[in-house]
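Before our next group meeting I need something from you. Please put the record directly below this note.
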Amino acid sequence: MSATDGVRVYLDGVRKADLWSGTGDSARSKSVNLTIPSGKHTLRVDSVNWSGAAKVKYSYPPRASAQYDKTKPLAPTGVKTAYSTTTRRTTVSWSANKEMDLASYSLYRRPGGSSTWTRMTTTTARSHTDPLVNPDDRTAYFYEVRAKDKAGNTSSGSADTVVRPLPVVPSLTGTYDRATGKVTLKWPQNTEPQFHHYTVLSNDLVDGSYVWVPLGTTTRGTWTTGPVTADGEWRHYRVLATNDGGTTTYSAKWLDASAANELWLEIPDGIAPERAPELTLSPCTGGIRATASDSTPAPIRDFTGFEIERRAATAGTWSPVLHQGYDPRTDPATATVCDPLPADGHTYEYRARSYDAAGNHSPYSEVQTVTVPGAPRSE
């Protein structure tokens, strides 16, 4: 700054330069080096004209020498990517930095899964088209921009932006409808311009081996399968994305529990035990002993317990008298109960069925009838 009369300079209200005294006809000058941190600041110049022309002049050019400038620029912001489905190349753009001594920007790239950045270009422009044509469309690339000032200070990297030429399915969920026996799959709908369609797969047994079998294709984020047997087994589903270049998500031949686009769904057990148990009746102290049994070999038993019900021969309502698991060490599997009944001479009916862990029931056994002796008459 220079002036013939008084002049003072303030930064954020703090005086940094003072030529308020020693005035005369000849202009005086003074320079001051200021280190200004990032953010918004106020630079104020006060001058006074006591006699004649003040001839005030001032400027604030940046000190671009590394001797004085030790402050690195701010990291660039507003970084955006645009993927061309025609050229299969990516254009990266960003907002302008505010530094007065900005010299250039450098654009860096790294493939997904790598921590090593490669500098693509250094430019004074605010956009650049990466000459790389994605070799297989399956590799995601991350981009980052760094700013450099005239003193050679380099900023931190901008927030990373990622380009996926091949859209991904980030999650997959599914539900089983007991009423229809169908599985409904859902996943987030892709909106990338290069997205073309999805392929839905099921892992099924074919010729003795489990393989991924295509169920069909769709452009929507949902799929409903055909009827699936409610057998208590696990079902496995996978959704692949295909882009407009015909490239499809890599699909391994094996199951991958950690894959976001793969679902392991447990189907409820809706298959009832096949056989009705045998039912036998015999007297016991104070009532009737009812025994349910099944001779199915232990390794292939499809039930976990027995139920026995009883009713009066003239009544319509059955009442449970036993709901019990069996001792797995016995053969045949057996459950028994001594059902207390009054000595009233009435006739009763019994029936039995088996059940499994999912609450499915076998057919009922044949109804067995017994008449309880009446009480002896006193003479």
About this structure: The chain has a mean pLDDT of 90. The first strand starts at residue 2 and ends at 3. Residues 184 and 224 are 4 Å apart (CA to CA). The chain is about 0% helix and 40% strand.
